[in-house]
Amino acid sequence: MPGLDGCALLRELRARGVDAPAVATSAEIDPAIDGALRAAGFVATLRKPAALAEIQALLRLASIVAGPRVPDSSTETAGTLLLDDATALAAAGGDRSALRALRALFSNELADMDDVAAITGSSAGSAAMAERLHRLRASCGICGALRLRDAAARLEAALLDDAAAADEAVRAFADAWRATREALAVDEEGNR
pLDDT value at position 95? Predict the structure, then answer.
């Protein structure tokens, strides 16, 4: 791309308010490049040339990951499923062993999110947490953690737009985070 690489372009799009899931494509994607692209905010990578089935799978993933930026009042966070197996299985291509592996990784990711309240205390921390929450929403979509996805979207929006609403959003996120971790532990026990 003239002038910008994919990561710079994605940063520019995010700065302009574009929140759609992004997929990076390249003829050269090794594990290090894949990791860097995902860390930059891409939900997936696709090596060119791609088969139609790969593109279709990515489109399904993108539609799952997108979710609402902020849940509307008709989808109250507490009323949303903790773990939606149908959503997660679709993202995993119907492969239950892949789903178990993804959810194990996701459980580890959640273990690193126990510092929500501390990070939201400063404006710099709030921006850093908003970025973490944005990435977390992608993982939630892939693993079917819909309640946590909605709570993360609400908290991300509060941190970026309405600091006054952040306290309630932090509490809702913490509740969804704990409930999701508990559900993942039960799910892991039942799937061994």
Answer: 80
Distance CA 99, CA 120 (A): 31
Both tokens assigned to 30 = 């090794």
Distances (CA, A) of 14 to 42, 134, 140, 156, 176: 11, 11, 20, 13, 26
User: In terms of DSSP H, where are the helices of the chain?
Assistant: 6-15, 31-39, 52-66, 85-91, 96-111, 116-119, 123-143, 146-161, 166-190
How far, in Å, CA of 119 to CA of 98, rounded?
32
Query: Structural domain boundaries of the chain?
Result: 1-66, 70-192
Any idea what the Cα angle at residue 21 is, between residues 154 and 92, rounded to 5°? 95
Question: Does 105 score more than 80 pLDDT?
Answer: yes
According to DSSP, residue 2 is labeled -
Instruction: Indicate the SS3 state at residue 76.
Output: coil
- 13 versus 78: the higher-pLDDT residue is 13
Distance in angstroms (rounded) separating the CA atoms of residues 192 and 183 = 14
67: left (phi over 0), alpha (psi -120 to 50) or beta: left
